[in-house]
Structure formats: structure tokens, C-alpha cells
Amino acid sequence: MKYRNKKKGTLYDVIGTCINCTNAQDGQKMIIYTNGELTFVREEKEFYEKFEAEKL
Are 30 and 17 contacting, i.e. CB atoms less than 8 angstroms apart? Predict the structure, then answer.
């Protein structure tokens, strides 16, 4: 599914979800997404604050 950055308007494809296993954030849900060139990961709550699903 495609998501648009609310600030920049850039489109990204969500690849999936994962769990952060670092000591400080163990168990934190993360979203994995890409612009086709680079792959990013962001905390789930923050992702949905900064991105919105692309309307078809």
C-alpha cells in the first residue's frame, strides 16, 4: 500500500512491520517502508502521524 508524507507529499510503499529488539525500545512496533531506492523504518505511532494512505 502507498502512503504519502503529509509534509513533503512524497510517496512510499509500506513493505511490512517488525518489532524493535534493542534494549531501550524492546517490543516497539515499527513500520518498514521504501521510496524504491532506500528502505526506512519508523515507530508505528509516529509513522501514522506523519503519513497518510494514498487515496486511489
Answer: yes
**N-term to C-term CA, the chain:** 10
The 8-class DSSP code of residue 36 comes to S
How high does pLDDT run on average in the chain? 93
- The answer to whether residues 5 and 14 touch, using CB atoms and an 8 Å cutoff, is no
Whether 50 and 43 have beta carbons less than 8 Å apart is answered as no
| Res 23 pLDDT > 80 | no
The Cα–Cα gap between 20 and 43 comes to: 9
Where residue 24 falls among pLDDT bands split at 50, 70, 90? confident
Cβ 28 vs Cβ 43: under 8 Å:
yes
CB 51 within 8 A of CB 9: no
